[in-house]
Every structure is written in structure tokens, then in C-alpha cells.
Design brief:
Structural class: alpha/beta
Bound molecules: pyridoxal-5'-phosphate
Number of strands: 17
CATH architecture of the largest domain: 3-Layer(aba) Sandwich
Shape: globular
Number of helices: 12
Strand order of the largest sheet: 4-12-11-10-7-5-6
Length: 386
């Protein structure tokens, strides 16, 4: 139904949801849903984790917001924790994925010093909806209505090193990519490809910008997806799971170059506020204390094994791919009707790129919850196989 007060950029479906706990949501009539795609990959600790709720309400009573020229205890602490878990870097906090990407684009312009400004981006990528990040997004359906976009973004084919090499010239300053293209259909970057891109960036003094907005924070069973590839980014972008539902994002830049983004060159009114940073610290603590990464590995493998069994049974499943708890099921036909039918039966997954079903559950999801969801998916597959 079309709202008379909301700009219709979203297709709203399903009932009105009023409550969530762990991997479940309840609608206003009390019907329970299993959510295997909580918050589009955001709610990594499940819905309304009690500890996150507690910290938010405590901090809200102490201090919600402070401008960035004043100091609070949690911003520096949150930055230190992120650096400890990743690489020697300095951190800029913002509020959403697209803002982290914008910060990286601006950083690249500074790094290029007016002489190098071309950024290589990938076909099928997704980096956000503001003008810079949209310009870095290699999908016509998002870009086309907004032409002309920001110039100097050069598209290369994902996982094709030879193609990338031909796109580099004197004006190139960096390469931006997702290690697993999420919106683009859960396409996993090859190990060798990323190794070669990393070496190419080193040799040519190019910034290797890794967008971990979707893959970061344990999603793929390592804290950050780049850690599967034995490389280090120059810039890493985080959001989604970083606040486990609270809006926050971060750009991490290699320490020895970070200071070129000097005083006044970038800012965010809300970025790095006490409430957001307290939540980031709590999320990191819970990931550790609740041994979330080993759950992602264990349950992720279980999920993929079960999906491969389904693939053997249903000829219309083309491929099952992903890492950890970021999984895509590519179909030979359209995926949206399956998503809708699964939702009707009380399970939330996602449909992307026309023919890919995406499952990205909470990182503390239980095997039994995966079984419950896959039983419904199997029922729907059976119906479609007829
Ligand atoms: C890889 C990636 N980068 C950036 C973004 C943009 O994030 P946001 O919607 O918070 O601006 C997304 C959102 O899905 C994403 O998946």
C-alpha cells in the first residue's frame, strides 16, 4: 500500500513489526517471524540485545551528544579498539556507510594532491546512495537516473586482474572494492585476485580502499573480511554491524598517511558522539565475550552445507556462495517471488540482483534457527519445483 506521507522509494511489504528479540520479530498481532536478514546485515547481535539496550539507556542518561571540538571518553577508546583489531590506522567516525565511503573519496583526492584523482571501482559494486558513493557504484539501475555523476570513477570487471591493469594510468589514485559484493549478488573476490590487486596498489602507490560496510564486524567469520586474504588495506570502511543497530560508521586510514586529512578538511556533526561510541565499544566486547566469530564459522559452514544439499535437489538453484554468515543462493529464475512466499510463511530473508536470495542472519544465530528457516525455504522450493 502506498503511503500518503512517505516518499515512495521503498517497496514496503509484510505486516507492522513492533518487537524483536534475538533472531525473532513480532508483528502487531503477535505473530512471530524468524529473521534471517536482520536489519539488512546490521543487527549482528540479533534484535534488541539486552546489553546493547542497557548501554544505550545508561549513556543516554549520562551524555548523548557532544560536538567534535570537545572531548568525551569513548571516541578515542573505540578508535583504539578498532585499530587493535585491524591494522595501524587512524579513525574517522561518521553515521552511515555512504558517509564512510564519501570520506574515503575525499581522502583519495587529498592523497592525489590534485595530480591523481581517478578511482577504479568495480562492475556490480554497491557503495551507497550519496553522489560520491553512487559514482563509485557499478550498477546502472542506481546510477542512470542521476546522471551526470561525479567524474573520474573508472569501472573495472570484478575478479579480473587483467582488466584492472588496463584501467590504471598516471591519474589513478586508488582502487575501491568490496571483498564480497553484497548488493551485487554475493560475489566473492578470489584470493589470488586480491593478492595481485594489493601488490599492484603497493607498486603504483595506489590507495587500496576496502569497503567492509557489509563484510566487516565478524560477518565472514574473521573480524574483517580482508583478514581472509593475507593483505592489509590502506583504507577500510565500516558501518552496518559496527553499532549492531545503532547508526554509526568509520573510516580507518593507514596511520602513516592519515594526517593529510588535516584540521577542517572533513567533519560530521553527529560522527563519533558518546552514545554511538559507547555502543561500538559494547558491540566489540560482546563479539569477544560471546565468542561470536567461532559461532559464525560453525553455523556458517552448517548453513552452506545444508544449502548445497538443497542445490543438489532443486535444479533451479544455480550456485551457493559466500563466506561465514554471508550467503547467496543464485537461482536460474527470479528470486523475489520466493522471498515473498518465504515471508508469508513467517521467515525473513532477502532477494537481490534479480536472481539471488541472500541470507545474512544475526551472528549469534543458532543451528536450530537455521534449520527452522531452511525447512520453510525447502517447502517453498518444493512448491516452485512443481
Ligand atoms: C558495501 C556497502 N557499502 C556502503 C553501503 C551504504 O551504506 P548506508 O546505506 O549505510 O549508507 C552499503 C549498504 O548496503 C554497502 O552494502
Amino acid at each position: 500500500m502506498m503511503s500518503s506521507v512517505l516518499i515512495p522509494v521503498y517497496k514496503k511489504i509484510g505486516p507492522t513489526f513492533v518487537r524483536g528479540k534475538g533472531s525473532y520479530l513480532w508483528d502487531e498481532r503477535g505473530k512471530k517471524y524468524l529473521d534471517l536478514f536482520p536489519g539488512w546485515g546490521v543487527s549482528i547481535l540479533g534484535h534488541s540485545h539486552p546489553q546493547i539496550g542497557k548501554v544505550i539507556s545508561q549513556q543516554a542518561r549520562e551524555l548523548i551528544h557532544l560536538p567534535n571540538n570537545l572531548v568525551h571518553p569513548y571516541q578515542e577508546k573505540a578508535a583504539r579498539e578498532l585499530v587493535k583489531l585491524s591494522f595501524e590506522a587512524k579513525v574517522f567516525f561518521a553515521n552511515s556507510g555512504t558517509e564512510a565511503v564519501e570520506a574515503a573519496i575525499k581522502f583519495s583526492r587529498l592523497y592525489g594532491g590534485g595530480k591523481r584523482y581517478e578511482i577504479i571501482m568495480m562492475k556490480n559494486s554497491f557503495h551507497g546512495r550519496t553522489f560520491g558513493s553512487l559514482s563509485a557504484t557499478g550498477q546502472k539501475k542506481y546510477r542512470y537516473p542521476f546522471r551526470p555523476l561525479l567524474p573520474k570513477f573508472i569501472e573495472a570487471k570484478f575478479n579480473d586482474f587483467e582488466d584492472l591493469k588496463t584501467k590504471i594510468n598516471k591519474k589513478t589514485v586508488g582502487v575501491i572494492l568490496e571483498l564480497i559484493q553484497g548488493e551485487g549478488g554475493v560475489n566473492v573476490a578470489d584470493y589470488d585476485y586480491i593478492q595481485k590487486v594489493s601488490t599492484l596498489c603497493r607498486k603504483n602507490d595506489l590507495l587500496f580502499i576496502i569497503d567492509e560496510v557489509q563484510t566487516g564486524m565478524g560477518r565472514t567469520s574473521k573480524m574483517f573480511c580482508y583478514q581472509h586474504y593475507d593483505i592489509k588495506p590502506d583504507i577500510m570502511l565500516l558501518s552496518k554491524g559496527l553499532g549492531a543497530g545503532f547508526p554509526v560508521s568509520a573510516m580507518l586510514v593507514k596511520k602513516d598517511i592519515a594526517d593529510i586529512m588535516g584540521r577542517g578538511l572533513h567533519a560530521s556533526t553527529f560522527g563519533g558522539n558518546p552514545l554511538a561510541c559507547r555502543v561500538v565499544l559494547e558491540v566489540l566486547k560482546l563479539l569477544r565475550e560471546e565468542r561470536i566469530l567461532s559461532n559464525v564459522k560453525r553455523v556458517g559452514e552448517y548453513l552452506r552445507k545444508k544449502l548445497i544439499v538443497l542445490k543438489e535437489r532443486f535444479g533451479f538453484i544455480k550456485e551457493v556462495r559466500g563466506k561465514g554468515l554471508m550467503v547467496g543462493i543464485e537461482l536460474k529464475g527470479k528470486s523475489y517471488p520466493i522471498f515473498e512466499e518465504v515471508l508469508k510463511r513467517g521467515v525473513i530473508i532477502n532477494s537481490t540482483h534479480e536472481n539471488v536470495l541472500r541470507i545474512m542472519p544475526a551472528l549469534n544465530v543458532k543451528k536450530e534457527e537455521i534449520d527452522e528457516g531452511l525447512n520453510i525455504l525447502e517447502e517453498v522450493f518444493k512448491k516452485y519445483a512443481k
